[in-house]
Amino acid sequence: MSVELQLERIKSQIPPNVTLVAVSKTHPIEKITEAYNAGQRIFGENKVQELVSKAEKLPNDISWHLIGHLQTNKVKYIASFVSLIHAVDSKKLLLEIDKQAKKNNRIIDCLLQIHIAQEESKFGFSFPECEDLLKDNEVTELKNVNIIGLMGMATNTDNESQIQNEFKGLNNFYIQKKSQFPFLKVLSIGMSSDYLIAIDHGSTMVRIGSSIFGLRA
Ligand SMILES: *Cc1c(COP(=O)(O)O)cnc(C)c1O
After folding, report:
1. Start-to-end C-alpha separation, the chain
2. Which of 37, 64, 111, 211 has its CA 20 to 30 A from that of 179?
3. Is 68 touching ligand 1 by the criterion CB < 6 Å?
4. pLDDT tens profile 131-158
5. Does ligand 1 come within 6 angstroms of the Cβ of 25?
6. Cβ(22) – ligand 1 distance below 6 Å
7. Mean pLDDT, rounded, of the chain
8. Cβ 147 vs Cβ 134: under 8 Å
9. What is the per-residue DSSP string for 23-92?
10. Taken in order 37, 41, 42, 45, is the CA torsion positive or negative?
11. Using CA atoms, how far apart are residues 18 and 11, in angstroms rounded to an integer?
12. pTM for the whole thing?
């Protein structure tokens, strides 16, 4: 199926309050252009270098999201244009984003990544660590970062009830924190394999790659 038809199919499945991030990592400019021509304007990449090189070649009304792990020393390469950083997983990273955003005269939107999966390899804060960060005075005083929500990745498993439990737990935490910190407006959960489950559990933003662009090489 073409990129355009896949986009249409996915959009018909997600409610209008859920934002679709088209994850274009590893896919060539031509494929991204197909999605762009079909009206898609939000794209996600997980590597800084790839993000920078694609952003240079594509129209500048695209909103670029960095969805993958971000190293502190690479923030400077994306600070001038990135619209949302999904995977903030340390205070040190947040401070660096603030510093680089300030240099560029910008305020950068960020999501705090919460570790919900069982795999050791996934990054992110625990619930208590996230609470501490939201209350941390050094963080609340930052002028050039805007924490607008939370992001999570479920365990890569066929066990649907495990995925449901992980999303349910994160959504409960999100709802609770949102009442305390009303600036939390985004819950970024759901990828190709689990976005329908994520939407059932409060997702406001899904990050979908292979279901739009096909399998990655
Ligand atoms: C690659 C990636 C996705 C999209 O994965 P698909 O299974 O291709 O939909 C979503 N989120 C993150 C953080 C990713 O790295």
Report:
1. 17
2. 64
3. yes
4. 999 999 999 999 999 999 999 999 999 9
5. yes
6. no
7. 97
8. yes
9. E-TT--HHHHHHHHHTT--EEEES-HHHHHHHHHHS-TTPEEEE-S---GGGHHHHTTT--EEEEE--HH
10. positive
11. 9
12. 0.97
CB contact at 8 A, 97 and 85: yes
Res 217 pLDDT > 80: no
Q: Mean pLDDT over residues 50-66, rounded?
A: 98
Tokens standing for 70? Answer: 């971000």
119 CA distance to ligand 1 centroid (A)? 16
Distance CA 4, CA 2 (A): 5
pLDDT digits (tens, 9 = 90+) for 37-46: 999 999 999 9
Mean pLDDT of the region 3-10: 97
Distance (angstroms) between ligand 1 centre and the Cα of 68 equals 9
In the block, tokens 């510093």 appear at 99
175 alpha-carbon distance from chain centroid: 18
